[in-house]
Specification:
Oligomer: single chain
Pfam families: DUF3458, DUF3458_C, Peptidase_M1, Peptidase_M1_N
CATH architecture of the largest domain: Alpha Horseshoe
Organism: Ramlibacter tataouinensis (strain ATCC BAA-407 / DSM 14655 / LMG 21543 / TTB310)
Family: Belongs to the peptidase M1 family.
Bound molecules: (3S)-3-amino-4-(1H-indol-3-yl)butanoic acid, zinc ion
Mean pLDDT: 98
GO molecular function: alanyl aminopeptidase activity; metallopeptidase activity; zinc ion binding
Helix content: 40-55%
Domain Peptidase M1 alanyl aminopeptidase C-terminal: 548-875
CATH superfamily of the largest domain: Peptidase M1, alanyl aminopeptidase, C-terminal domain
CATH class of the largest domain: Mainly Alpha
Length: 875
């Protein structure tokens, strides 16, 4: 297969106006009749029609009702003898496919005896021959026929216009989508499903039917998803003036799904993980994720579906923008400024622990990539999360009202079109003449074309005699594969200056555009403390040589909650890096740091959720990113030792925190209650860790009791996790009991596998446990959620256990990548990325990791998905 380049984009040679699809659904052999009206694109030279297809059996091709000659070339169906001129003509294609054998979960597949589709990015070609590209938009009519008893529910996009009985116990349903769409938004679902439904009226008074479909038995877990959907509809109308444009909007849950969810027009298909929730099976985090993913898919209805991507290089046009929108939605729903800040910190944490490493590794690519071998590999944190930060910077530069105006202009110009990231940025800028964005647009757009995380070097000079404080801000960006030299980008730097009492002396937004710039502040009495990059106003690494005193002042006083948290992270990180660098020195935390942590924990007014974030040490991955040479077991040991000391030094405070943050009354996953449960959970973990040192059984006993008695999954899981993390002997019976309690709850069993695979390593015990769990009757590598819960939790989320000096972790990884590649290449390719940063590893890990990657690369029949990852890794 060939590398595809953005620069090679050509408009399609044909347009498809209408598509009539008729499905005879059968797991072993589904028959698909595809009747299309096409016409030549007058703007493109005359050429044959080349339709994409994959794993299809072709039975018949008719043009205008007559047989015609055709060729099959490299999977494409090529038709040369088509009517000349620009009049529409009819093309009919009859194919069959085998959904039950479809383990890739792309196209039409079977899960739990129901049919589902996944067409983004290039799955539609696995259903029928088609121009499988997002800039070809058509009107769809879909007829579904299937056995009524096995498949009582038959769904597709749009409106149900007809249904009825057929012979032999079969029935049919006919759906018409009122909106034109690219084929990646096509969907069908057929099976034994039940639904929760709700009628709502929009602001304009228009009525809509909302439905959430699940397997019988799961209906009691759909209330939160439905409420999230109702909130999403109301939010998009209120915040952006974007109404629901459908009479009926459906969500369907499946337990076999490659990603989180899919925004098919009017028929969203979701991973059960992002739909099903009850207080006894889902944690507060699950509830929050459901809200955000339901919102995300719903918001795609405008940003993605009404205006879509011209080609897959523009993926961030819809994904970056929609992530920005779902982040804003969750912040708005969280309400209070402090709860908004918590959400912002969580989002930045994801960016820094997942996207920054991607941007510094072999898979680094611009938000709008220039080339790919397999598009599935580019559904990345760069396209999604960094893309959202790019949209957020535009928002910062034009303001809230300006951004709303920009969105309105974007839809005015492009509704119903397939467009580019340039079109989006142009609309936001044009709606805000005179703004910094409009002024700097060409330079701003480097955020779309340059890979790599820019670094902002800040330095300060204090002239006491003149009372002048001078800040110098510089920017650089390290080279990335294929981009050795970088140009300066536009970096909005939100800042404040504090005095030693924590009073704000100045604040503002500086837009950094040059390689180096200077800001000067006059008339100050004493040297201020700079609070830079407030709210994480740009996706950059800020380098400033903060002293402990300055960080402690920011932690105590900054009016910007993000930078308050950031100060604690910097304090902890500096210590972790020092300990890592001194392997022969004891890991001993200093009193000022411990006291500062105590101060936050005991603070009378700060939110519990915020305290929990401050008291959580930087992750091992984040610590590793700061180092040139990485020894993951050493980082793990240091972080564990720091946590152990915080556990012991603050024992009385943790006891207070646990007692003071119990949540009574009915379970509610709101930010305040969730924050209290999170802090109580963190306290319990530290108390069990402290008990490890003293061999005092009281707190492990309390954790076990809480584990047994908890009235919700958050408390139960936190208690179980405290026992597992502290390595207490009660962990074993608790895990057994947990499994017995939830043996029929797939999503809870995923947690059970993940907890064990992600446990702190003690003498190399995790890998044997993982290998043993692979043999567990509940383990099934074909189910992506289960594979992720066991294999990914070990290889990608447990660096201290995975990077073993004996290389056994890497052997396990290479075996699993190759095993999964034969089943589901998309999932295999994600796992392959666990060794992205092999080049930074300390020897002998580095050599062993390289060998493992080479072993995978040497496999002859590798998918494009995995091949692209391992080839880039070894380049
Ligand atoms: N737009 C959706 C992407 C997606 C996907 C892509 C490749 C293979 C399977 C997939 N399932 C969903 C998800 C989203 O961003 O909303
Ligand atoms: Zn999306």
């Amino acid at each position: 297969a060939a590398v595809i380049h953005r620069a090679d984009y050509q408009p399609p040679a044909f347009w498809i106006d209408t598509v009539e699809l008729c499905f005879d659904l059968d797991p072993a052999k589904t028959r698909v009749l595809n009747r299309m009206r096409l016409r030549r694109n007058p703007d493109v030279p005359v050429q044959p029609l080349r339709l994409d297809g994959e794993e299809l059996n072709l039975a018949r091709v008719l043009v205008g009702g007559q047989g015609t000659s055709f060729k099959l070339e490299g999977g494409q169906l090529v038709l040369e003898n088509l009517p000349e001129g620009h009049e529409p003509f009819e093309l009919e294609i009859f194919t069959t496919c085998a959904p039950a054998k479809n383990t890739k979960l792309m196209g039409l597949y079977v899960s739990n005896d129901s049919f589902f589709t996944q067409c983004e990015a290039e799955g539609f070609r696995r259903i029928t021959y088609f121009l499988d590209r997002p800039d070809v938009m058509a009107s769809y009519t879909v007829l579904l026929r299937a056995d009524r008893r096995r498949y009582p529910v038959l769904l597709s996009n749009g409106n149900l216009v007809d249904q009825g009985e057929l012979e032999d116990g079969r029935h049919y349903a006919k759906w018409v989508d009122p909106h034109r769409k690219p084929c990646y938004l096509f969907a069908l679902v057929a099976g034994q499903l039940v639904c929760r439904e709700q009628r709502i009226a929009s602001r304009s008074g228009q009525e809509h039917l909302l439905q959430v479909y699940v397997r019988p038995g799961d209906l009691d877990k759909t209330e939160h998803a439905m409420n999230s959907l109702i909130d999403s509809v109301a939010w998009d109308e209120a915040r952006f003036g974007l109404p629901l444009d459908l009479e009926r909007f459906m969500i369907v849950a499946t337990s076999d799904f490659n990603m989180g969810a899919m925004e098919n027009k009017g028929l969203n298909i979701f991973n059960t993980k992002y739909v099903l929730a009850s207080q006894s099976t889902a944690t507060d985090t699950d509830y929050a994720n459901i809200e955000s993913v339901v919102g995300h898919e719903y918001f795609h209805n405008w940003t993605g579906n009404r205006v879509t991507c011209r080609d897959w290089f523009q993926l961030s046009l819809k994904e970056g923008l929609t992530v920005f929108r779902d982040q804003e939605f969750s912040q708005d729903l969280a309400g209070e400024a402090s709860a908004r800040a918590v959400k912002r910190i969580e989002d930045v944490r994801v960016l820094r622990t997942a996207q920054f490493p991607e941007d510094a590794g072999p898979m680094a690519h611009p938000v709008r990539p220039d080339q790919y071998l397999e598009i599935n590999n580019f559904y990345t944190v760069t396209v999604y999360e960094k893309g959202a930060e790019v949209v957020r910077m535009m928002y910062t530069l034009v303001g809230r009202d300006g951004f709303r105006r920009g969105m309105q202009l974007y839809f005015q110009r492009h509704d119903g079109q397939a467009v580019t990231c340039d079109d989006f940025a142009q609309a936001i800028a044009d709606a805000n003449p005179g703004s910094k964005l409009a002024e700097l647009l060409p330079q701003f757009k480097r955020w779309y074309s340059q890979a790599g995380t820019p670094r902002v070097q800040a330095s300060a000079r204090w002239d006491a005699a003149a009372g002048t404080y001078t800040l110098t801000l510089g920017q650089t960006c390290p080279p990335t594969p294929g981009q050795p030299v970088k140009e300066p980008v536009v970096i909005p730097v939100a800042y404040g200056l504090l005095d030693d009492q924590g009073r704000e002396l100045a604040s503002g937004l500086h837009v950094l555009t040059q390689a180096s710039e200077t800001l000067s502040f006059q008339g100050l009495q004493a040297e201020p403390v700079p609070s830079l990059l407030r709210g994480f106003s740009a996706p950059v690494v800020l380098e400033f040589d903060y002293g402990d005193a300055q960080l402690l002042a920011l932690l105590a006083h900054d009016t910007d909650p993000f930078n308050r948290w950031e100060a604690a992270q910097r304090l902890a990180l500096a210590r972790a890096l020092r300990f890592v660098a001194q392997p022969h020195e004891p890991v001993a935390l200093d009193a000022p740091f411990v006291d500062a942590m105590r101060g936050i924990l005991r603070h009378p007014t700060l939110d519990a959720a915020f305290k929990e974030l401050v008291l959580t040490l930087p992750s091992e991955t984040y610590i590793a990113e700061q180092l040139e040479v990485v020894d993951p077991p050493r980082i793990h040991a240091v972080r564990e030792a720091m946590r152990q000391q915080l556990a012991q030094a603050l024992q009385a405070d943790w006891e207070w925190a646990w007692e003071a943050h119990q949540v009574g009354g009915a379970y509610r996953p709101d930010p305040v209650s969730s924050g209290r449960r999170a802090l109580a959970g963190l306290a319990l973990t530290h108390l069990c860790l402290a008990a490890r040192a003293s061999a005092d059984p009281v707190w492990p006993g309390k954790a076990y009791q809480r584990f047994k008695d908890a009235s919700n999954m958050t408390d139960r899981f936190n208690a179980l996790s405290a026992l597992v993390v502290s390595g207490h002997e009660l962990a074993r019976p608790a895990l057994q009991r947990f499994h017995a309690m939830f043996k029929d709850e797939a999503l809870v069993l995923d947690k059970w596998f993940a907890l064990q695979a992600g446990a702190p390593d003690r003498g190399g015990n995790v890998l044997p446990a993982v290998r043993q769990l692979m043999q567990h009757p509940d383990f099934n590598i074909r189910n992506p959620n289960r594979a992720r819960s066991l294999i990914f939790s070990y290889c990608s989320a447990n660096p201290g256990a995975f990077h073993r000096p004996d290389a056994a972790g890497y052997v396990f990884w290479s075996e699993r990548v190759m095993e999964l590649d034969a089943i589901n290449p998309q999932v295999a390719a994600r796992l392959a990325r666990a060794l992205d940063r092999w080049n930074k590893l300390a020897e002998p890990l580095r050599g062993a990791a390289r060998e493992a990657i080479a072993r995978v690369a040497a496999k002859p029949d590798l998918s494009n998905d995995v091949r692209e990852i391992v080839t880039r890794a070894l380049a």
